[in-house]
Amino acid sequence: MSQDSPREARASLYEGLQAEHGNTLKGLGYSSERSQRVRFDAFARFIDFRGSSVLDVGCGFGDFLVYLDNLECAPRHYCGVDLSEPTIERARQRHRDDSRATFVSGYLEAMPADAVPQADYVVISGSLNWHARSVEEHTRVVESVLLSSWARCGKALAFNMMNAYGIDRHADAPRLRAQIANYDPAHWLAFTMRNCSPRVVCVSDYHDIDFTIIAFRHDLPAGVA
Fold first, then answer.
1. pLDDT in tens, 96-125
2. How many helices (H) and strands (E) does the chain have?
């Protein structure tokens, strides 16, 4: 069993993917463009990002900013955070002419409060899935990331994760390593409602092995996202 720390384990997963697949979606852990897009679509179903500030945790190459622009829901400011320095450098080069975009490398849960700006919306897509050493370790790290993200959002936190119930139905479940990660939607729904906000959306109708939770600040007027 690897003795890497949880942070090292997360970094080594994405370093391995990029070593194998290069600067591609597969290098970020997505199986296809559609796989990434339907996850972004789940966020956009419930949040209007136009004119907002966005903090993208596990931003990869800044694809979510491109997605929002193509959707004509351009934010006024976008900050991407990723644990991989090479990935962040690729994102900086890709968006070097975009004054709205900034990119920071590191682990959000370990950053001081002023390391990244507060944002209207914090999004986490695809970066809460990795090969932890145990369910307990995965749970502990994800809870820390979510709490750090919630503390930085002004309006809503949106995140997705693999769905244990869908994984169990797939023949390639061993590849997904569901046995050493907490992909139970019920746990994360309860955690979010208990520690963030009781005003949430939880959907899993867009993908066999994924679910999305969006928590809205409960002090916002009803219907305001």
1. 999 999 999 999 999 998 899 999 999 999
2. 8, 7
